[in-house]
Amino acid sequence: MLRVTFKKYHGPIKVRDAAMFLLPGYAPPNPPPGEYVTGCDSPGDGDYIWFMAYRIVITCDRTMASDYHGLIFFGFSACLPSGTLPDRLYYPLFCPSGKHDDQGRLLHANCGMRKIEAALLADGFSRDDIVVAHPDCLDRVIGPETRIVSISANDPLGIGPATSTYSELWGGEGRMAIELRRLLRDPAIRRHRPVVVLGGPGAWQLSVDDRKRRQLGIDCVFVGEGEVGGPRLFRRILENGRDGLPAVVTGEPVPVEAIPDIVGGTTIGIIEATRGCARSCSFCVPSVRKVRSRPLENILREVQVNMDAGNTGVILHGEDVLLYRSDGLKVNPDAVVEMFERVYTAPGVRFVGASHAALSSAVSSPQTIERLSRVLELGTVKNPTNYFQVGIETASPKLIGRHMKGKVYPFEPGQWPQVVRDGFKLLHDNHFVGCATVIMGLPGEEREDIEQTTELVKSLRPCQSLVVPLLFSPLQTTRLEYATALKKKDLTAQHYELITACWDHNFAWFPPMWVNYGRDSNPLLRVAMRFVLTHGAKLVKYRIHRDARRHGARV
Ligand code: SF4
User: Fold this and answer.
1) In this structure, which of 70, 130, 198, 299 has its CB flanked by the most CB atoms within 10 Å?
2) Nearest residue by C-alpha to atom 6 in ligand 1
3) What is the pLDDT of residues 220-261, one digit of tens each?
């Protein structure tokens, strides 16, 4: 049952909120004794007003409550530490507030939040008990009846690889950590003290840091997949509250048939195509997961849900979407092409992108890339380019052999630099932009390993692409969790040369990429970004070169 709660109005109240509280013609059931207001525009001091509270509120920090102007790569700006960009520029430029209705329900939410919502519904929870809410609207959905606030977090302590790299290099604190603290201090949470459960891709950070968990006021951290373990945990909390609640709960891998279809729109239409990765890189969290490909019918149903929710495009998500319905690590070209084609031709869909792909999959099956390019009409005025996030990580066969043999399969570690070059050329020729990472400071790294990677990055200049350098940071729960992180003080001249090579590459490609990438965004944003890319980029480039020279790099 939808819970309706009353409280006395002691203004001032925002007009927007008043419109929500005082829906014309609404008569709340069982009004409390005394006067209350409904159907009028301006409550008086001491009047009763009502609002709805849900037993289970699913939300996220503010950096995740955005559609990023429909530009998925803008989402990564949340990894920039505070101080790099003031809030008054960061939010309008990269992370405008996600749309929500009068009751505070997010129209497009993070895919993980939608999965939990769907799993609870599939498990028999009532629709009226659950809301996926905008973090700025918690006062509209949390009340005395609220038992659980479930928070999805990507990087709750700001120690994920990208955030920690840029906090280490440029100073400041991860924005996602700051925003999570702000969320947890929300007056509605403090007042009603529901059980706070934190899950999502970054939950591992708090699963190993009990002191921080308690400091933040998080009752339970949920790590792993949530579709089976989540509803079980929530029922337990509804029955027993905090009594006997474990600090950390681990969700088991979910069979593909138990992954429910989402029932609401996702951020930029992200839809899960595959889950897990069998390549088992020693530094990566998904290495412990089992790979599953979702049936095409389920994917298409979620496309429809997203179109109904006002999205116009779809991003197919997987750690390597080219392994959709693969035979182990062998690409199944027909299955991949069919998935993209059916999604692209679904009613209402104007574009289809993908999150991650492995260069080894692309190079082992060039026909898949060529066919995808044709199916998605790339290289045309309608769809000039498309994007894949790929991992280079290093050019060193030694480090590949030691840490990520599976990443290069079916190739050998010694072939990796050539696979990267061939992969980037294949993507470029077929109008895909590869957005890659390289990792500095992997255990066992020596001077020549860094130099090989710098040479490789420089050789990629003719291909439209991005290469983001990261400092190695050991993630808990991975095979390298006890390895030593690379800190700024330990960076060598060779590291600075590699960082500079990457950013020179990126600054060369940003302007032409933006012409295609941002062409459908709003005109104000286009103007602002042109300004940032011309003037801001020059400044950042100057500072990167200056830092590199100070540390003895030949740049
Ligand atoms: S290929 Fe990518 S997702 Fe898979 S284990 Fe390696 S880094 Fe992780």
Assistant:
1) 198
2) 281
3) 999 999 999 999 999 999 999 999 999 999 999 999 999 999
